[in-house]
Amino acid sequence: FFQAEDDIRDKLVTGVQTCDLPICSNFVRHALQTHADWNVNTLDKLTYAGRRENLHDVMDHDRHVFVHGDILDAAVSGPLVEQSHLVVHFAAETHVDRSIMAAGEFIRTDVEGTFTLLEAARRAPHLRRFVQISTDEVYGSVPTGSSRETDELRPRNPYAASKAGADRLAYSYWATHGVPIIITRASNNYGPYQFPEKVIPLFVTNAIDDRPLPLYGDGRNVRDWLHVLDHCRALDVVIDRGVDGEVYNVGGGNDVMNVDLTRRILQVLGKPLSLITPVADRQGHDRRYSLDTTKLRGLGWTPQVDFAQGLAETVAWYRDNPWWWRPIKEQDPQFQAYYRAQYNSRT
Ligand code: DAU
């Protein structure tokens, strides 16, 4: 790949690096399926949430190259960016609870890692788009209404603050250096291959094993759920028709209270409500996120996956693919130590 300078077709670099993996691995798969003329390079640090298994069916694809490396390592990430027409930068530490326990990796990967890629992007001769994957968490908690792209950023936890830093840093490279940046702010993704620390895969896999579902606080916090394939299709639209320097919200329009989400999961699995176990709340727990997606809809995107159906399919995927999550939950000492540290003191 690195010698192929004369033969540059569209090359897509997706930084993974402990990313919110339903998004990145699903996007790689989606890109290979829907863009027959794309060569895809995935850069992944393979830390706790980045796993080769997430890409098991496309590892040997003839238009996909997997690179094991860190975006912070400019010697690895720099040449990849410099040879690319398109960069979609998913690489991030993503789990809010972990950022509350220790924020250092979030600053390094999410902020400094983004800086490293942006510096390479300044030098990239063929670069047409650099999509910075941001999050609705940068707006902070929204008691009523929905966040618009022009709203003030009020991140309230270390993860959200590092993503807000990266979001604005990317913007500055467009405003200052003319790098073709587009920023997307997505709501909570759900779907297959999501690391079982996030609420949906955690609750589904706990429920399958008749283990308690640790619901934070009063369970009335609201999240907007976006199916990962709707997110992939939104990325296609902004890559194709978005405007440089602009921000686009990507939300599923499914604002659901955590307690209702939990009940639905139990209902799909036919498990008792008694598995719901209220536990101490997350520190600084944002009460509600909600996105106004008028701007992206103006480019022709609408979410296609019905939430009830998408959730049922996602639950079925975890039920049918224990080979993917059981080794994490049952054999990974790092995950088990995290689970104890996160939940033992809460109950
Ligand atoms: O909103 C987009 C964000 O969604 C992304 O930027 C983040 O990377 C992603 O992690 C996610 O953040 P959340 O904190 O909303 O996701 P999480 O799955 O951790 O939690 C969803 C909700 O469920 C939240 O209100 C906290 C609650 N929760 C979570 C866990 C893990 C529980 O009640 N119990 C739990 O054990």
What does this protein look like?
By secondary structure, this protein is of the alpha/beta class. The chain has helices spanning 21-34, 74-82, 96-101, 104-123, 158-177, 199-208, 228-241, 258-269, 294-297, 307-320, 322-331, 333-343; strands spanning 10-15, 38-44, 64-68, 86-89, 129-135, 181-186, 188-190, 213-216, 222-227, 247-250, 255-257, 276-279. It has a 7-stranded parallel sheet with strand order 3-2-1-4-5-6-10, sandwiched between helices. It is globular. Bound molecules: 2'deoxy-thymidine-5'-diphospho-alpha-D-glucose.
Blueprint of the fold:
Elements: E1 10-15, H1 21-34, E2 38-44, E3 64-68, H2 74-82, E4 86-89, H3 96-101, H4 104-123, E5 129-135, H5 158-177, E6 181-186, E7 188-190, H6 199-208, E8 213-216, E9 222-227, H7 228-241, E10 247-250, E11 255-257, H8 258-269, E12 276-279, H9 294-297, H10 307-320, H11 322-331, H12 333-343
Parallel strand pairs: 1-2, 1-4, 2-3, 4-5, 5-6, 6-10, 7-9, 8-12
Antiparallel strand pairs: 9-11
Helix pairs in contact: 1-7, 2-4, 4-5, 6-8, 8-10
Bound molecules: 2'deoxy-thymidine-5'-diphospho-alpha-D-glucose.
